[in-house]
Amino acid sequence: MIKKENYAYMLVLFFVVCTHFTAVAQDKYRKPALENKKSWSMIMIPDIQNYVKWGRNQPILDLMMAWIEENIDTLNIRMVICVGDLVQNNEKLANDYDGNQSTQRQWTAASGAFDRLNGKVPYIAATGNHDYSIDEEGNRSSHYNTFFPADKNFLNQKYLVQNSRDEAGQQTLANSAYEIKDLNGRDYLFLTIEYAPRDTVVAWAKKIADMEQYKNHRIVMVTHSYLTPKDELGTGEMKWLYWKPYQVDGKIQKSKLIELPASNNGAQIWEKLVKPAGNIEMVLSGHYSGEGYKKGVNDQGKAVHQILFDAQSMGGGSRSGNGGDGWLRILEFFPDNQTVKVRTFSPLFGISPTSQPHAWKRDSRNEFTIQFE
């Protein structure tokens, strides 16, 4: 006969075991899939600089792009967006503690990774601060146009409807817009503007948003530096540095931070461009390590969903880490044209049964739903 106290103990033990196996069942790995078969999706790639600056990390970026390529049909991917910092250094020859790949190798790795998507899905590769060189007055230059020309991906060329110029006066995709019509009955404009956009670029983007031909479009905008992990718009002067022509103790020397002339921070982009526009309803950004979300209201009383995602400090950090653990985001746009489900997934962890339990970030900062109005 079982004693009363032993019986109670066995009940507790049974409950604990059942709870454990239920939790394990709930955490069972699920391959990424659309929740609604009529949805379409957009992939958001965070800063990739820490993948390309180390030769050992570049295969992780290739894996991420291979995963996107394999899931274009499964997830009905209609656009891929990278939020900038495509390289660590726009003007590096010698190796130092912050990467063993030259500028040429970094740009080649970044451009080559996107080659997997050419002819299969359009993509936007935004520019970040690391993608520029500056002089002592803060004037910018970049190898971006060489490695991301307009005809690199014919689908980009197909959907490209607007573009502006860089600081050197050259036509560039760093400031450009792509029109995709009839995504579940809704027309979209995907707009990208350079890091710390100059006043002329902000004015150009505002004119695009105000055009009669786009008044009923939903605009998704991407710029590198905009929202912080504190869910606040970036403030302060926009600055960058130049790399001095010598090393000390294995470190390439940097200048002091230099203000970029006529540039705009996140708060200024909001006030001058996003808030006055009635059709910019989503802004995607990186730059600041971590996650962020802020729901704003524009001058027309419509919600603007502003999302930060930068995983470069994950996977061990920037000096000795793997570049970001392969994290990316899947944004599923439901057929009601209002609901968007945001999920955070790592193809790196998802590739093996050993690591698959870690392939999803399930916390509220990384998995959430937003509603367009």
Describe the protein in words.
Helices cover 25% and strands 28% of the residues. The protein has helices spanning 4-26, 49-52, 58-70, 103-115, 144-147, 154-159, 199-210, 266-274, 317-320, 347-350, and strands spanning 40-45, 77-82, 123-125, 133-134, 140-141, 160-165, 171-183, 186-192, 218-222, 239-240, 243-248, 251-254, 258-259, 280-285, 290-297, 303-310, 328-333, 339-345, 360-361, 368-371. The model is unreliable at 1-26 (pLDDT under 50). It has a single domain (40-371), classed as Purple Acid Phosphatase, chain A, domain 2, CATH 3.60.21.10. The strands form five sheets. Strands 1, 2, 3, 17, 18, 19 and 20 form a seven-stranded mixed sheet that branches. A seven-stranded mixed sheet has the order 6-7-8-9-14-16-15. The termini are far apart. With 373 residues, it is an alpha/beta fold. The chain contains ten helices and 20 strands. Strand 15 (290-297) and strand 16 (303-310) form a beta hairpin. The longest helix has 23 residues, at 4-26.
